[in-house]
Amino acid sequence: MLAHVQPTIRGPGVVGEQPILPPGRSFSYQSACPLFTTQGTMEGSFEMVLLDDSGGWGARFEARVGRFALRAPTPGGSDDAIAPRRG
């Protein structure tokens, strides 16, 4: 039986960036993690900071990311769900 692994990752930014998002804008990215089984899950949160009217740091809040599935690629198979997005 494999042990349950639940590492916590903390640090500034995501994939080396600290995007500033004006109202109505979004930021998307791709990353990877070690997966020691054929499937797993991930969940967590991002700490966000509102900008005040002068562009300085304002209130902080937590943006939760619900649990989602992870799946290891199949050797020699077609894994469109994990292939990098193009375009």
Q: How many H/I helical runs?
A: 0
**What does the radius of gyration come to?**
17 Å
Biggest beta sheet summary: 2 strands, antiparallel
Q: How many beta-strand runs? A: 2
- Terminal residue distance: 41 Å
Structural class: mainly beta
Q: What is the H-and-E element order?
A: EE
**What is the helix fraction of residues, given as a range?**
under 10%
The backbone outline, from C-alpha atoms, is elongated
Proportion of residues in extended strands? 25-35%
Give the overall pLDDT as a whole number. Answer: 80
Strand order of the largest sheet: 1-2
Detail the poorly predicted runs: 83-87
Structure description:
The protein has 87 residues and is mainly β. It has a domain at 42-71. The chain is built from no helices and two strands. It has strands at 39-51, 57-71. It has a two-stranded antiparallel sheet with strand order 1-2. A hairpin with a 5-residue loop joins β1 (39-51) and β2 (57-71). It starts with 38 loop residues before the first strand and ends in a 16-residue tail after the last strand.
Q: Which key features would you list for this structure?
A:
single chain; 87 residues; mainly beta; 32% strand; elongated; disordered C terminus
